[in-house]
Amino acid sequence: AAPREQSMNVPPQDGLRVPVDDLRELVRGIFAAVPIPPEHAALVAELLVDTELRGVVSHGVRQVERYVRAYQRGATNPRPHLRVLREGPATAALSGDGGLGMIVAKQAMDLAVAKAQDLGVGVVTTTYHDHVGSSGKYVRLALRAGLIGISLSGRNAAPDYDLSGTLHGSIQGSPPLAFGFPAGQGQPEFLLDMASHTPWDEECFRRMPQVFIKAIGLSHVANILSGTLGGQMLPQFDRRHVPFQGADQSGFHLALAVERFTDAEAFRADMDRLMDQTSRMRPLPGFEEST
Predict the structure, then answer these.
(1) 273 pLDDT more than 50
(2) Contact predicate 55/9, CB 8 Å
(3) Which of 64, 73, 82, 193 has the lowest tally of Cβ within 10 angstroms?
(4) Each residue's pLDDT tens digit, 203-215
């Protein structure tokens, strides 16, 4: 458990516990009233509550107001028509048509999973959509299918970019990265779900500049694989001219079938060993446990 003052993902002490089904129905009803299509409202509610249940409260239901306001301002398309831009046997590129990122990202990972189950690997990019939320929920789609999953989201690659939220004007922003690996029945699956940004600290930089340099490097990787590979530098996705100005994000979703690379049973056994050893680590200073 992280120290409370250092973590943005700690449940509030003064909150009320709400039954999951009731919370999901409340969120669904809010988005249905925007209105957005019923199937989209149900999907967004499902994904936001899924994120909440994982303890990622920063990207759970507290995002509802942000998304609703974006719809009200006309920054996000309430009725997007998702489009396949390119597709090959193991790959695809999708356009979110200015809609909320969760809608196209879910379809992208579902498609990547289907391709991986058929061919061993599936890679799908997304472009021209709003916020995807926590990337971990898309990786969990791959894990539930017994696959390795990777999900990244990044900036719009248009010529003009707001540098106000970046580290020393580095253009990288704070894209999320998530990596998931299935384990056996004895241990939890490995899931790394994080933002790439490291808050600036002058004293820390003087002592360990590599921390910030690595963070910028990771952010550029996410931005290139999602934004640039997704095609957001193309004229039709230039954020200065698109009708839905909030749709300035992109995504990269990958699924891998373990058995196409090595023995699946042996892989899971080794993952069990790794996760067991991780749980036995000595907690870092200020932490109560290692996992």
Answers:
(1) yes
(2) yes
(3) 73
(4) 999 999 999 889 8
Q: In degrees rounded to 5, what are phi and psi of residue 239?
A: -65, -15
Interhelix angle 101-119/136-144, rounded to 10 degrees, is: 30
Question: Contact, 72 vs 57, CB < 8 A?
Answer: no
Q: Which two tokens stand for residue 41?
A: 């409202």
- CB neighbours (10 Å) of residue 218? 19
Phi, psi (rounded to 5 degrees) for 287: -110, 150
Coil, strand or helix at 248: coil
d(CA 60, CA 21): 15
Cα separation of 112 and 110, whole Å?
5
Output 69 or 56, whichever has higher pLDDT.
69
pLDDT in tens, 73-95: 999 999 999 999 999 999 999 99
SS3 of residue 250 by DSSP: strand
DSSP codes, 164-180: TTSSTT-S----EEEEE
This prediction has a pTM of 0.91
Burial class (CB in 10 A: 0-12, 13-18, 19+), 177: buried
DSSP 188: P
Dig out the tokens for 24 from the structure: 């999901």
- Gap between the Cα atoms of 133 and 156, Å rounded: 16
